[in-house]
Write a structure and sequence with these properties.
This protein is of the alpha+beta class and about 200 residues long. It has helices at about 5-10, 20-30, 35-45, 50-55, 65-75; strands at about 100, 110-115, 125-130, 145-150, 155-160, 160-165, 170-175, 180, 190-195. Helix content is about 25%, strand content about 25%. The strands form two sheets. It has a six-stranded antiparallel sheet with strand order 1-2-3-9-4-7, with no helix packed on it. Strands 6-5-8 form a three-stranded antiparallel sheet, with no helix packed on it. Helix 3 crosses helix 4 (about 50-55).
Length: about 200
């Protein structure tokens, strides 16, 4: 399914995007994935100098570049545009409900929205929506500390080999342990998830 936001944004001139915020997000995503400037530049087929200027907000990436970054980091292209409409006073501080940046797709059974204003802090906060019947097949291990609060629905999480069933109002926390999840319910499960350091 085409990204509707992408088609709208294709018509916007570069001046409508704040290059310093976009660059900051690209740098945070690169660092979260343990990539150097040289590695990312090589994968993108661009120069290190150009990438450095983008990260410092001195150059504005084209729509094609933004698409490449989104594909490289596994985020929606709309992720890079969620901050556009924020007022100067709110930028980096407030995230309005209609302007959250999407980080997943419904095909995966998990759609996440960034609740944090950006990726520059020591942690990130996400609103994670797990589709009914969806599950993560194989455990993943991240060098992070993570916590979550189940807002609605039913949710099960396996942490270090032990499954836990959660109901609305329940919460969890773990650090650097393998985990996977599943939604055994007939409706979406909504979890507010906190990850430190940010992984997106």
């Amino acid at each position: 399914m085409p990204d509707a936001t992408a088609s709208i944004r294709d018509t916007l001139p570069a001046a409508h995007r704040d290059p310093s915020v976009t660059g900051h997000d690209i740098r945070a995503l690169r660092k979260a994935r343990g990539m150097t400037l040289a590695e990312l530049a090589l994968r993108l087929g661009r120069s290190v100098g150009w990438l450095s200027q983008v990260e410092r907000g001195l150059s504005v990436p084209s729509i094609t570049d933004i698409r490449s970054f989104a594909e490289m980091f596994g985020v929606s292209i709309s992720f890079f545009f969620g901050h556009e409409a924020a007022s100067e006073a709110e930028q980096g501080v407030i995230v309005r409900s209609g302007r959250r940046r999407a980080l997943g797709t419904s095909e995966s059974g998990l759609v996440e929205e960034l609740l944090s204003p950006d990726l520059g802090g020591v942690f990130e906060t996400l609103r994670s929506v797990f589709a009914a019947g969806a599950s993560m097949e194989k455990p993943v291990l991240r060098e992070t500390e993570e916590a979550g609060y189940l807002v609605s629905g039913l949710f099960e999480i396996e942490i270090d080999g032990t499954w836990h069933s959660l109901e609305p109002g329940d919460s969890f926390r773990f650090k650097a342990k393998p985990f996977r999840w599943r939604n055994p319910g007939a409706e979406n499960a909504v979890v507010v998830w906190v990850i430190a350091p940010p992984v997106y």
